[in-house]
Amino acid sequence: MAADERDLEVQGVTVDEAINNGLAQLGVGRSDVIVEVVDEGSSGFLGLGGREAVVRLKVLGQPKFEEPVAEPVTEQSVSESELAEDVGRPTVEREEGKRAAEADYALGVVTTLLDKMGVEASIAVSETEPDDLTGEIRSVIDVRGQDMGVLIGPRGETLNALQYVARLMTGHKLHQRTTFIVDVEGYRERREQSLASLAKRMADKAVRGGRPMTLEPMPPNERRIIHLTLRPDDRVYTESTGEGRRRKVRIFPN
Question: Are 117 and 150 contacting, i.e. CB atoms less than 8 angstroms apart?
Fold first, then answer.
């Protein structure tokens, strides 16, 4: 599977038929995609006014692993290897430089915002591990202090708003898309662990009960955690359904 993600929107008489149509077109299995139900369709009244179901399939990339090939070390092969490293190095350096500039400016933006809010806190910058799918590394602006709950808000809504504003201001200044993360007292890591645990519990319930389980509405980044957590579990599959802020994940037994 390619490392990048591909989206495909397909139709069918039922949701299941639409999904199967899309899987056939992409040539992948159910566990290789995230399914979002755009429209569940309708049979209409007495066969009139019906409409087909519509789903969107997002293919999840998988890292490629290649067996190393032993080659004799010659003067020519060493030169080619060094050349390849030299070609790749500027790209890596540019990405690191871009990320450093983004983090530096974002640090100032978050500091200013907290000062305007009257919040006293210490702020540090770190980096995430490379993403399992994309290999992307992100800067993390970590805020710590006393009584930080006011910056997190219910289900992280205040924190998400703070991150959105900080990214907007930083992106406007640097004229680029920004991807840094704003965290408070390690909330996002704890939330991810909690969602992964929830996903596994609900999957067990779906299997035991033989019926789908529906989770609460979540933002896209949290729905992704549910999808990826259950992707290796061949007992179940997941779909996103609903619109806007009401989008949620449903877990189906196989």
Answer: no
Q: Which of 179, 165, 177 is nearest to 127 (CA)?
A: 179
Give the pLDDT band of residue 198 (cuts 50, 70, 90).
very high
Do 144 and 151 meet the contact criterion of CB atoms below 8 Å apart? no
Span 28-77, pLDDT tens digits: 778 778 888 888 877 655 445 567 888 888 887 543 333 444 444 444 44
Find the mean pLDDT for residues 181-189: 93
What is the model's pLDDT at position 5? 46
**Would you give the distance in Å from CA 58 to the centre of its chain?**
12
Beta strand 236-241 with 33-39: parallel, antiparallel or unpaired?
parallel
CA-only gyration radius of the chain, Å: 23
- Over residues 120-141, the mean pLDDT reads 87
Give the torsion through C-alpha atoms of 81, 83, 87, 90, to 10 deg: 100
Query: Cβ neighbours of residue 250 under 8 Å, at least 6 residues apart?
Result: 212, 213, 214, 215, 238, 239, 240, 241
Apex CA 191: angle with CA 123 and CA 95, to 5°? 55
The answer to whether the CB of 170 falls within 8 A of the CB of 180 is yes
Cβ pair 55, 238 in contact under 8 A: no
CB 35 within 8 A of CB 238: yes
- Read off the pTM: 0.58
* Cα 10 from Cα 237, distance rounded (Å): 18
